[in-house]
Amino acid sequence: MADTKREIERKYEGPPAGGDAPLPDLTDVPGVSRVIDKGVAELDATYYDTADQRLATASLTLRRRTGGDDAGWHLKLPVSEGVRDEIRAPLSDTVPEDLTALVRSRIREAELVPVVRLLSARDIRHLVDASGTLLAEVSVDRVRAERLSGGAGSAEWTEIEVELADDGDPAFLDKVEKKLRKAGLKRSASASKLAKALDETASRKSAKPEKPEKAGKAGTTGKIADASKATTAAKPEPPDSAPRTAGDHVLAYVRTQRDAIVELDPAVRRDVPDSVHRMRVATRRLRSTFRSYGKILDRTVTDPIGVELKWLAAELGVDRDQEVLTEHLTAALDELPSDLVTGPVRARVSTWSEARRSGSRQRLIAVLDGKRYLDLLTTLDTLVAGPPLLEAASKKPGKVIAKAVRKDFKKVAGLVGDALELPPGSERDLTMHDARKKAKRTRYAAEAATPALGRPAADLVRSMKSLQTLLGDHQDSVMVRGALRELATEAHEADENAFTYGVLYGRQEQRAAAVEAALPGEWETIEDKGAV
Question: In sequence order, what DSSP letters do the residues of 138-150 get, joined into one string?
Fold first, then answer.
């Protein structure tokens, strides 16, 4: 299993190769007691990427390095400016499969090849406090870059690197930087050594862009419609330009959700907390956007993609819904006085929950490595690159986008109205659940509309989120009551006392009744505000 290290560092430009290291005396940096010379380490790193540099484009770096005290394979994933997670694996002749998997959403089926070799003479100093605790490592790196593929030639430079010690205070880097700036140093214009090497050794001839890959046509086997064959009525703006048309705004939101899925892939594989939920939400946002904005994006193209997004959301949700239900049951038990808990209730809940777990980490990883998922990512890329825009996409966003949001809001209003007219019972429960799903869709449509419509759309996002939460509490109660009926039946068949399940059921009925009582007032407030 690969190790992970959070790396917080800053890079500064130094003098030309061969010049003296421009490090000032750092002992007077606040908090520093001593500067310890750790000598010079000779580092030899080969960086890997696809032929078209997909990793570098995403600010990811993958290298095999010898020398120093951390020889091995290193994959660096960006977290924020100056912060990266470094995933480490032992030395081997080929790229470790664990690391290849973590970049799968970027490289797809492309081969990883050596692109740059960096030879560095690293002059290392440790900044320590009065107790000898390491605060930061400062190094002067004299670097020689040799291009191995996709370019030619070599380059040399010197840079200063300041890396915060593990669990250190990031504010300490500001103190060091203040001293370095006074000495005439400035932040490096390149985010990494690799970025600088690629730039300085690149072939200056413009490369002909590759055609986007095509996916198959829609079918019942999970294949996706070829988005590149859609007739477009309006050309999209480049991603880096300000959105102007209705199509620009919708595509910007689509692009953001596509990016979220790709970027969250490594986190899901690493089981980072909340990553599965966040990827699942991104798939739902995309699918809702395709449905809400069917007058802008051709649904004959996007509907089959929506089917695949629904499949992916379901795979991501395997076991998660059961976990949430178990959490609700456990929390409800915790709220009960001990004298109302009779029999082995907690053990029964635990056994019941485990019996309904149908997924595993291995299953989810197999999905992420599978052709169906990778084809979906490629199809999303194709759609973003050549979107199936309809005539309305070229119009100003005010009317077109607002009309789509109002249409969704009207559907929510209809369902809430129906629910308020129904008596308590299963039909009302189902209608309230449908209203919750439509509120979520309207919320996502309003999110996409906010850059174009401003405050009215932002207000609607908040209104729909509030309604979604209220109706979600009701649906949770419905699901918990269903689980309690199952548990009570199992307990009875095992000759266990079922009293506690009845108490919990009654409390959940009260919870649902409270939501139903609050709904008219909540909806009246939302209706008064209206849609966009």
Answer: EEEEEEEEEE-SS
